[in-house]
Amino acid sequence: MSDAWLLIYMLLSLSSAALAVAVAAIVKAMRGAGEAGERVVEELRCPSCGYSMRRRFVEGDYVGHVVDFRCPRCGVSMVVSRIYVESAEPLRVKLFTRRRERREKHLNP
């Protein structure tokens, strides 16, 4: 009987640790949107013609929210279709890689 209780105790400990890690990751993702190189972006889509555009997140907006901005094509009010965190890191990595490649070509012709 004690082996069964030990197994139950171990499973509960592991599941609570996994839950704590998941909650910490979610909290970090929510707070991390303000870090350097990251910004919260929302995608607006016209329900009439399908035109879409991106803009910085406006506090109070949510997915499905009809915003005051009108579609430049047809003039219908646009709807928030996506909200996400955009990272500038890939661009930064790409720029540094290009600089390094240029420097290497210049130094080793």
Q: Key features?
A:
27% strand; alpha+beta; 2 domains; 109 residues; flat
Pick out the low-confidence regions: none
Termini Cα gap: 75 Å
Overall pLDDT metric = 79
Strand order, largest beta sheet: 2-1-4-3
What about the largest sheet? 4 strands, antiparallel
Describe the protein:
With 109 residues, the chain is of the alpha+beta class. The protein folds into two domains: 1-34; 35-109, no CATH class. Helix content is 45%, strand content 27%. It is built from two helices and four strands; from the N terminus they run H-E-E-E-E-H. The chain has helices at 2-31, 89-107; strands at residues 38-45, 52-56, 66-70, 77-87. The longest helix has 30 residues, at 2-31. The relative contact order is 0.13.
